[in-house]
């Protein structure tokens, strides 16, 4: 094969950078600031993967997380207007509403954001348990983005604990991702944090709606048949550019890539 790598300049990312205190250092917040003056949704994906490409350990992404990952996870939630997630991830990870400390709430108020970002769940069937933590441990009403065929039944079952929204496009049996982002934008929820699962991220990528991906690489090998962080039928080739790379003493790497175009 041809030596296409000849003459490429590589950069060694060495230890010795200035440390960041995740508890109170504004620099960590600044690493995950969204673009200014948004008028449409900016979609940031946040996922974690093992060294050998697995998205879960023991069936949950939380099985890969460390202390640093949880700090970065919190920083991203503190910056977002809305947290977008699929129903399967809500069930598996036992999602509750976002919990923010006083300092983060005050910072959000100064930026003109609501104190707490809502969770927005994509589910074409509306099949969610009204007694789940998503509905019982939250300060703000969750948004349920479902299909036209399921919306009335979902309102009957979940209308007392959530806002049910018809997010269908041409197909009444499915939620449309462009419609979903339009719905969020109409509510002023421009800073979108997509936390999975793999099918949600795959659909966003397939439809050209993913603006950036923050990927934590855990220093863990999981083997087995663990899924990738993204799945779906559509193949695309979206060029990305790196925005930053952070590391911690436990060997985790925190990458951020933004769409190149």
Automatic annotation (TrEMBL):
Pathway: Cofactor biosynthesis; riboflavin biosynthesis. This is Riboflavin biosynthesis pyrimidine reductase. InterPro entries: DHFR-like_dom_sf, RibDG_C, Riboflavin_Biosynth_HTPR. One of its GO terms (biological process) is riboflavin biosynthetic process. GO terms for molecular function: 5-amino-6-(5-phosphoribosylamino)uracil reductase activity. Coiled coil: none annotated. PANTHER family: 2,5-DIAMINO-6-RIBOSYLAMINO-4(3H)-PYRIMIDINONE 5'-PHOSPHATE REDUCTASE, DIHYDROFOLATE REDUCTASE FAMILY PROTEIN (AFU_ORTHOLOGUE AFUA_8G06820). NCBIfam families: PRK14059.1-1 (NF010663), PRK14059.1-2 (NF010664), PRK14059.1-4 (NF010665). It comes from the Bacteria. Residues 42-253 form the Bacterial bifunctional deaminase-reductase C-terminal domain. Keywords: NADP, Oxidoreductase. It comes from Mycolicibacterium moriokaense. Pfam families: RibD_C.
């Amino acid at each position: 094969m041809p030596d296409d790598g000849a003459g490429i300049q590589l950069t060694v990312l060495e230890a010795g950078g200035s440390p960041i205190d995740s508890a109170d250092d504004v620099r960590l917040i600044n690493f995950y600031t969204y673009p200014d003056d948004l008028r449409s949704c900016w979609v940031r994906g946040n996922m974690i993967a093992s060294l050998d490409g697995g998205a879960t350990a023991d069936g949950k992404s939380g099985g890969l997380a460390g202390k640093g990952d949880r700090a970065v996870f919190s920083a991203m939630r503190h910056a977002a207007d809305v947290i977008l997630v699929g129903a399967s991830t809500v069930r598996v990870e036992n999602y509750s509403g976002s919990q923010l400390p006083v300092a983060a709430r005050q910072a959000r108020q100064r930026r003109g954001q609501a104190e707490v970002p809502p969770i927005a769940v994509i589910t074409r069937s509306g099949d969610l348990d009204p007694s789940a933590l998503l509905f019982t441990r939250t300060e703000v009403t969750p948004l349920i983005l479902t299909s036209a065929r399921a919306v009335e039944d979902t309102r009957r079952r979940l209308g007392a604990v959530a806002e049910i929204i018809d997010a269908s496009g041409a197909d009444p049996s499915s939620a449309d991702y462009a419609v979903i982002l339009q719905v969020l934008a109409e509510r002023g929820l421009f800073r979108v944090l997509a936390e999975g699962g793999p099918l949600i991220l795959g659909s966003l990528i397939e439809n050209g709606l993913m603006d950036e991906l923050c990927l934590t690489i855990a220093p863990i090998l999981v083997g087995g048949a663990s899924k990738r962080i993204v799945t779906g039928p559509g193949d695309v080739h979206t060029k990305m550019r790196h925005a930053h790379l952070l590391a911690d003493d436990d060997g985790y790497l925190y990458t951020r890539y933004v769409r190149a175009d």
